[in-house]
Write a structure and sequence with these properties.
The structure holds two protein chains of two kinds. By secondary structure, chain A is mainly α. Helices cover 75% and strands 1% of the residues of chain A. In chain B, strands 1, 2, 3, 4, 6, 7, 8, 9 and 10 form a nine-stranded mixed β-sheet that branches. Classes of the chains: A mainly alpha, B alpha/beta.
Amino acid sequence: MSSLPPAAEDLFLRPRSVLLERIVEWTIRSSAFVVIAALVLIFVFVGKEALPILTSSAVHEEVDLVRMVAPLESGGFSWQPVSTVPKYSLLPLFLGTLKVTLVALLFAIPVALGAAIFTSEFAPQGIREVLKPVVELLAGIPSVVVGFFALMVLATWLQDAFGLLLRLNAITAGLGLAVAVIPIVYTVAEDALTAVPQVFRDGSFALGANRWQTAWRVVLPAAMPGVFAACVLGAGRAFGETMIVLMSSGNAPTVSLDPTESFRSFSATIAAELGEAVHGGPHYHVLFFLGAFLFVVTFGLNLAGHWYVGRLRDKMQGKSRLASRGGGR
Amino acid sequence: MRKSFAGLALVAVAGGSGCGQRNPSAIVAYGRENNSGTYMYFKEHVLGNSDFAANVQTLPGTAAVINAVSKDPRAIGYGGIGYVKGVRTLRVKKDAASAAVEPTLANVVTGAYPISRYLYFYSLGEPEGAVRAYIEWARSEAGQKVCEGVGYYPIPAEKRVAAPVAPPAEASTITVKGSDTMVILGQRWAEEYMKLHPGLVIQITGGGSGTGIKALIEGSTHICQSSRPINAKERDHVKAKHGKEAVEFPVAMDGLAVFVHESSAMQEISLDQLKGIYTGEVKAWNELAPASR
């Protein structure tokens, strides 16, 4: 068969391969639809369970949107869903989530960007080929393992090193979370830096800039949308991560931005409480409301991230795309 | 923009590390997640239904609480007695005037120890077949011996089953779900019983008493293990869904131990002091009466 010229081989196989191709094509296409359908259905389900917060009068006897946001009658903000008078202030959870996300990004972004710049601009080929997959392997560590490490080892180290009052706080959890965030930021940022055309570097070197100046002032600014996207995607991951935070945050719903205090995040609250909440009760709907909120925020962050990556691609290929368009006309 | 946000966080870190060191005598209170029977019990019987302070750190599982306390010289925690290891257990006083009581077998069974409770099995309607046999065995002399082996306390003799029925001969699976406090106990019972009756498979999972009761309501478990009595609302749910009552079996007793770090000078504590600590009124060890330290 291989002795036939390519065109003839094609002809010979056509009737069967067309049918086969159709089947394969439809299988792949439908599996893509299944994924999208799953996403939509999940959102519809979460939204449906969250909706009674806005509409159901039975739920409103115990909680409504205003009471979740405004200060309580008893003063202050408090998350005490299992109580004679249940209290559902979102502020403690919001501050907790915000606090740990900021701390995680503060640790993760410099490390991940530094590693990405090193990999794309400075590392010799051999090191690059090892470094990239190894950093990406970090993403494969189950978050429960990271959480356990943060709980058992990191917490003690940090307490001893800084004399902290609380073992479990936003610094412990943030450092653990950084382990989950670094591979995401690193991968996307490294791709963005690598996508910067070689002519940029060549031009910069030709003008007498050294490698550091080229990396810092030419390549990094050129890749900025992608780098920014990397940070946004990292923030999305940090915001929604559950297990690490559940294990190493102390889960105390305090109203505080102090990173040495324990906190309670949205995701950990859902994980810890949904098992107990009475199906269809106010607490149950509040937790789904939190879920819907988390979904919207992480979805928004991911969307923004991908939009920026797309913009970077346009920027890098702008010239060639214009040229080819011009040629087509 | 990134710069300003990094700056903000740095200020927060700098300000925060000062805060954390302010009071060397501060109490670090650990408790359980609000899906646990232990949480409910403590809230009802020690806090008198007041809310826990916001800064009480909640951990999933008694073992996690004990682990945290064992590493933290300023910590206090509470949990089922069967788990206590590597921490110092405090004697508990009902009020300032009464004697401090050690959580021992005798004190828990006589009720002298002020925070003790029954642990329960629940089934959907009167149990039958292998499920009935297993529940009766757990409440028999043999089953109660297992309790003591893992650090729980047996139920009083009048509540035990004298002659448990044997399970049917055919192979079957029993699922048991609920209280994290009871997971170890449940597993030991299951191991022993499966040794006696090799055809049986007994699956134990935790998740919290509330989770177990929910599974019972949904009909997804044969037996629910719970460290608190089922409440009226949950009873109604069971009845509405299955037309059967949730049937209750006390299977063991548990003292709720209060424990501190091994290096702590504390020896005893009163229920009022405990309430003060967990509602946030008492924030430092040196605010407690010196007699108890």
